[in-house]
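Subject: Sanity check before I submit

Could someone independently write out the structure tokens for this chain? I want to compare against mine line by line before I put it in a report. The sequence has 314 residues.
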Amino acid sequence: MAQRNYTAVREFFLSVFAEHPEWGLPLFLVFLGFYLLTLLGNAGMIFLTHKDRRLHTPMYFFLSHLSFVDICYSSTIVPQMLAVLLGHGAVISKARCAAQFFLFTFFASIDCYLLAIMAYDRYVAVCQPLLYVTIVTEKARLGLVAGAYVAGFSSAFIRTVTAFTLSFCGDNEIDFIFCDLPPLLKLTCGDSYTQEVVIIVFALFVMPACILVILVSYLFIIMAVMQIRAAGGRAKTFSTCASHLTAVALFFGTLIFMYLRDNSGQSSEADHVVSVLYTVVTPMLNPLIYSLRNKEVKEAVVKVLSQSKPSGRT
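---
Independent answer below. Compare away.
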């Protein structure tokens, strides 16, 4: 059998929406606006949870960490994407590509775990309200958050090491907005079976495990709420949980589309749109989702704005 000569790839060329170069500047301006809103909204949420004593509760403690992770998560991807859009492509070294992939996987995994933790927190608050302060103690919530960071680091480290032990050769163009595993696998020139298994393991254990915790938690919540006789009590409980469910549906829905399907085909514009949703739009919407549906957050915003106004003295 004749052997083929390959040139080892030492850098990659990121290219997105290459068929529509005229979209570059408009998309750059749109995504830059989204990114600034992401930074402002999530930083504002962190500020409010530390500023207002009414928000010094476990739920908002977890939410402040979610906001912090969303800032890091978005900052890992969006600046590189803006450079790609403005320059109609960008060259990225293999080491920088690996670093971006690690950070993306790290923060995305933490997001998954935090959303599951928040669902468990709501379950305890609704189903075991008298025991809430003894179950969700400061030590417990610090342990849960620390566990999310450790598990996220472990997942990211294993996937990054596994992915970048592959041999990349020949074409070095990544038709995607950042260095993610599905488009990288299309550039391999050797057997990528082990790496494909890693994708499946990540998809079948990390995301479904978190989704299972969320579904079970909300199943018990629904059962508890249905036993509440007062309609107002039911509405208040569902309203508290609705913002979290909205964030869960948006985040996990887009990730499932990307990872729980066949990635053997070529990158499509649908992939680009979905990747924009979970890297740009979701981190931007999370603070809006939680602030618009939570009375405590809206009152905290009003309080901060009223304190920032001049007193009007002469």
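---
OP: Matches mine. For the report I'm noting this point. The chain has ten helices and three strands.
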